[in-house]
């Protein structure tokens, strides 16, 4: 994805509405591109900062944005692990069926 596409995804990232594939591409690009990372920070600080100021809450938006990106990366890792576990179970099921068929042919 190019910077323009990533920057269009920023509002959906902030609202945590990106799907797994889009989220993976977004996080990878943000990690590698200082310009898009800065654009994300500006958008996040503006959006969340105004909201927080209206509510009178204290905040550390830089830390929160970093946490948000870390959570996205953890979510992607967990989904990848779950997908790999499912593949392992599928393989075990296939092997078990194969053994059952082979055993039935012997009987």
Tell me what you see in this structure.
With 107 residues, the protein is an all-alpha fold. The protein has a domain at 3-76. The protein is 87% helix and 0% strand. The protein is built from 4 helices and no strands. The protein has helices spanning 3-14, 20-32, 34-55, 61-106. It is elongated and about 75 Å long. The N and C termini lie far apart (57 Å). The model has no long low-confidence stretch (mean pLDDT 89).
Main β sheet profile: none
Q: What share of the residues lie within helices?
A: over 70%
Number of strands: 0
Backbone CA Rg: 22 Å
Strand content: under 5%
SSE-based structural type: mainly alpha
Distance between the termini: 57 Å
Quaternary class: single chain
Query: pLDDT below 50 for ≥5 consecutive residues: which ranges?
Result: none
Question: How would you describe the shape?
Answer: elongated
> How many DSSP H or I helices?
4
The SSE string, one letter per element, is HHHH
């Amino acid at each position: 994805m190019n910077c323009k596409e990533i920057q269009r995804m920023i509002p959906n990232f902030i609202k945590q509405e990106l799907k797994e594939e889009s989220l993976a591409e977004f996080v990878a690009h943000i990690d590698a591109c200082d310009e898009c990372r800065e654009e994300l920070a500006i958008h996040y600080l503006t959006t969340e900062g105004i909201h927080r100021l209206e509510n009178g809450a204290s905040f550390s938006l830089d830390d929160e944005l970093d946490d948000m990106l870390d959570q996205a990366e953890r979510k992607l890792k967990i989904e990848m692990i779950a997908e790999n576990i499912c593949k392992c179970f599928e393989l075990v099921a296939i092997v078990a069926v194969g053994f059952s068929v082979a055993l039935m042919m012997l009987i």
